[in-house]
Design goal:
Helix content is 44%, strand content 9%. The chain contains 6 helices and 3 strands. Strands 1-2-3 form a 3-stranded antiparallel beta sheet, covered by helices on one side. α4 runs antiparallel to α5. The protein is globular. The mean pLDDT is 83.
Length: 174
């Protein structure tokens, strides 16, 4: 609960607030690069309630008031100083999704922190962004993003065909 790898953990010193964004140094990105990678998170001024820069700023103030500056401890900690792990994030995400009963329980169970990475590629693809733009935005070097950027029209057509086939099968059983 209290051990972490200093060479890969996200530390407060890896976060730099700028005018409209936060620069996050990822020491050990999924696609390895010498010296890590920097991800910029931009303000969402159109909807202050969803502004990630304001949320992170507020979190940093709360973290500092709880742990002091604690610059050499991972960014995300519990009040007792123990580490907040991705398994807890996934559990918390499901708890949040449970507040939306219109989502089926099987749909809610499919969500995890990784869903945001997959969702980004799917969203950008559906909005007509080019392959190079999607790869750049998601920091993909290969075409692996295609596994995430699901062709929504093809999936809808397949769903309709499957429904038709299963409907005919049910009719023959009656």
């Amino acid at each position: 609960k209290f051990k972490y790898n200093e060479s890969t953990a996200l530390l407060p010193t890896d976060i730099q607030f700028k005018k409209d964004c936060v620069a996050v140094w990822v020491r050990s990105p999924k696609v390895w690069t010498e010296g890590g990678d920097v991800v910029e998170v931009w303000s969402v001024t159109e909807n202050p309630g969803l502004d990630p820069v304001a949320a992170l700023s507020c979190f940093m103030e709360l973290r500092d008031s709880t742990h002091g500056e604690a610059l050499l401890a991972p960014l995300f900690l519990h009040e007792d100083g123990s580490l907040y792990h991705n398994t807890e994030l996934n559990k918390d995400l499901r708890t949040l999704l449970d507040q939306f009963p219109s989502l089926s329980s099987s749909t809610r169970e499919c969500w995890s922190a990784h869903s945001f990475r997959a969702g980004l590629a799917t969203l950008l693809s559906s909005l007509g962004f080019s392959e190079e733009q999607i790869k750049s935005w998601g920091r993909w070097r290969s075409n692996a993003y295609r596994a995430y950027a699901q062709d929504q029209a093809r999936r809808r057509k397949t769903r309709m065909e499957l429904s038709s086939v299963f409907g005919k099968m049910l009719q023959t059983l009656k």
